[in-house]
Amino acid sequence: FSVDQYHAMIQSGILTTDDRVELLEGWLVLAMSKNPPHTLAVGLLLDALRALLGAGWFVNVQEPITTTDSEPEPDLVVVRGERRQFRDRHPGPDDVALVVEVADATLHRDRTVKRRLYAAASVPAYWIVSLPDRRIEVHTDPSGPDASPDYRQRQDFGPEDEVPVVIENSEFGRIAVRTILP
Fold it and tell me: Listing from the earlier edge strand, what are the strands of the sheet with 125-130?
């Protein structure tokens, strides 16, 4: 499906909020249920990011972003601007500084499909909070739309590390990994 077809299905009531799906590279994909450790990690990371961000930025939680061929609903997204400017549209890649997926059962999808689609959309930074591995993978320097979109840089941070929160080449602060792991 195209993004426009997906939106038409939502507007016509074919898809509702009860349909836990997201559009990934033209395919409707079931969203996974969330277990308590996932929910806890999302909440703790939300608190940490909000404490670091200054004016002109906000954090969305499990809300859509729109790319050329997808409308994923990442766990967390750092968005430039004010919430009200998105009354008539979802944020797109040009509005997004950081996308975070908290992964347990979705780890394979987050490392493959979602990493590829965020890289193709040129999202500057993509974090995977890997609950099974107890680490945060930080992916940066997206290739953008090419034959095999990906991130050129990856750095892993374990429980004893602090992850720098870098937005538009400025470090806003650091988050201790152990403070967000369940």
Answer: 57-61, 76-80, 96-103, 125-130, 135-142, 151-157
Place of tokens 């992964």: 103
Q: Which of 165, 129, 177, 179 is nearest to 57 (CA)?
A: 165
CA distance 182 to 78: 22
pLDDT attached to residue 90:
96
- Taking residue 20's Cβ as centre, other Cβ atoms within 10 Å add up to 12
pTM: 0.92
pLDDT tens digits along 125-142? 999 999 999 999 999 999
Partner residues linked to 5 by β-bridges: none
Contacts 24+ apart (CB under 8 A), 40-46: 40/182, 41/102, 41/129, 41/131, 41/180, 41/181, 41/182, 42/75, 42/76, 42/102, 44/179, 44/180, 45/75, 45/76, 45/100, 45/102, 45/129, 45/175, 45/180, 46/76
Tell me the pairing of strands 57-61 and 96-103.
Answer: unpaired
pLDDT of residue 4: 85
Report the distance separating Cα 182 and Cα 45, nearest Å. 11
CB 125 within 8 A of CB 155: no
